[in-house]
Write a structure and sequence with these properties.
Among the domains are: 80-175, Multidrug efflux transporter AcrB pore domain like (Alpha-Beta Plaits); 427-523, Alpha-Beta Plaits. Helix content is 62%, strand content 8%. It has helices at 13-23, 25-41, 46-49, 62-70, 95-106, 119-122, 146-161, 163-166, 177-211, 214-239, 248-276, 281-308, 316-347, 371-381, 383-398, 419-430, 451-462, 493-504, 518-552, 556-581, 586-589, 600-631, 634-661, 669-701, 710-719, and strands at residues 81-87, 115-117, 134-140, 170-175, 406-407, 438-445, 467-476, 479-486, 511-516, 597-598. Strand 7 and strand 8 (479-486) form a beta hairpin. Helix 14 (371-381) crosses helix 24 (669-701). Keywords: Cell membrane, Membrane, Transmembrane, Transmembrane helix.
Amino acid sequence: MSQPRDDGRLPGVFAALGRGAARRRWWVVAGTAVVVLVGVLWGTGVFGNVIGGSGFETEDMEAVRTERVLQGPLGRHAADIVVLYESDRLAAGDPAFAGPVRRALDALPRERAERVESYWSTGDRDFLSRDGRAAYALVQLPSGVDQDRVRQYEEIRGALAAPAAEVPGMKVSFGGSTPMTHQVNALAVQDLVRAEVLSLPVVLILLMVIFRTVVAGALPLLVGLVVLPGALAILRVVSTYAEISTYAFNVVSILALGLAIDYGLLMVTRFREELAAGRDVDAAVERTMATAGRTVAFSGLTVGASFACLLVFPSRFLISMAWGGIATVVVAVAASLVLLPAMLRFAGRRVNALRVPFLPPPRVAAADRGRWYRLARGVIRRPLATTLAVVAVLLALGAPFLSVNWARPGDWVLPPDAEARHVTQQMAARFAHDPSRTVTAVVTASGPIARAELDAYAGRLAGVPGVHEAEVTGVRGNQARLSVGYTPDPMSPQAYTMVERLRATPPPPGAQAGFAGMAASRVDVVEMILGRLPLMALAVAVVSFVVLFLAFGSVVIPVKALLLNLLSLTAAFGAIKLVFQDGWLSGLLGFVPAGAVDINYPVLVVGIALGLAMDYEVFLLARVREEWERTGDPAEAVAVGLQRTGPTITGAALLMAVVVAGFLTADMVLMLMIGVGLTIAVVVDATIVRALLLPAAMGLLGRAAWWSPAPLARWWRRYGAAVAEGPYDGQRGENPGQRVPLGA
């Protein structure tokens, strides 16, 4: 343990950083103002650099490779837009209905609509509804690039919708992959803004309630105001070298305020404790940075590392989420370690000024004998029974996840009243077939392919369960295109099996076949993520182990932390499956269950929730470590550590839950998944896991929790990040400086 120097100052980089920030506080404020200004004026330019669309696929997927071939001479044969024309008065064959629709479709220029098909151009009655009062048209757009097609759709949408102005009572709706992407992009922004607007006032009120004074409650918010523009500036830099999806802003939105509050709570609470112990303001800032500042640094390193592990996935969606998380963590830690100590020095003892009316005065919890202390002692007296009971409950809550049906985003993520969702529902209810339920096969051979062999192959594909039609729709040289219509929902288990059987069906002799389309893409996305998941798990385990060992000098603590944090996620995963696949609470949350769970979002929930779980782990264990070094009593260290950090962790979790719970008001199912999954994960981790399971596990381990092999223990004592001397002691106010052996 580090000893105070002869001049009374604490050694170590964090104590020095605190002294420097406090001494040069005006320069710190000026520098922060420049950073915020750059972020607002220049960083917000990232919104012009980001790319919309899905970003769930990668270039090496079979569906993507097949789509690339279709962009060549063979050509695509896709229904990019499904335009649904409905009337409650007229039949589709009535000239008053058919005339305006035909004129609108015929007027589309070929450079904007490569292929247009309808009942009037083909004579196929499948384009008409069974009751005759609705008809649809298919439009294939020229571009093979997702976002280019969105722009092309926006250009012709008005012309396609024009019949609604001519025919009384006509309704025009747009479905298909391109309108779906357009609608998802628009709703994602709306949901994000709504979540922030609803959660921010509640966060403000809770901060005042937790801190009991306006000055203390405002400090974490001040950090949050710096984090957002700073993170945008970093993303602006990243976007010049890599493609960043608009979904990156979801992570920034959640973490910017959440981490600022987490770190602000920890730092301000410790500062108030040091003042209550009789320190002067400068000493309180220094000791706050030497202890809580160190905790923030290691916590941020752990959270950032968790997000960095998402980079093992090649999809733009998850890479964007990773960069959004990394950028936010970097700025949150920097602001907490530089700006916050300067602001604490400005506030001084006025940190307890401007009391909130009608609330008790702020107080610093006693070092021991509080309710958190008594809870920990009670758990430690029965550690095995508590551990078994909590683990059994968490595993039971997570058990439903074992039967999850994985999917990828489609129109099912939209609210029931969205246009694309309406079109899909009408296709299923009123028409013979849904034209969007098509898989395209591309056959490539070394030479020309006999038509008889292609027809025979189409017959074999038509025999696959779930397929209602397969036909050759184009031949060019040594390549052929087949369109395969299918019946099951593209996100159903039946569709997954169907795609696997289609790909297993032998193509013509000497040829190879590839499949594209939503159902095929779903299989590729699921297999890509499941294939990379073990690599992500290994990366998280290794990085977390290294960081936690550097922080605490134990090889047992990192293993215990990983196991507990994974257990804390089980309840969230079980809830996601029950809600979004099985439909529990779907009426309350306002969505129609699709019978599946998007495989991207559990990965994202793991990235965010595991990072936050490590956050709370470091908060608690840092204080336990201080007491362990002071007393050498493992049970007392856990009890006092929980008493000291229990209110802080609970407050941080409550505020984070409020931030993410704003997404429960979202229209998009994807946003709802974030809200449900993260809210449950944060609440379970901060209550059941931190308050019960962690003390029980530490009670079972005893002194062994801090064990390391002798060589590692010696290395850590010499080079590791030891806790600075002088944690506040509620009884004596001094630290006896006892050194506890860590190694074997």
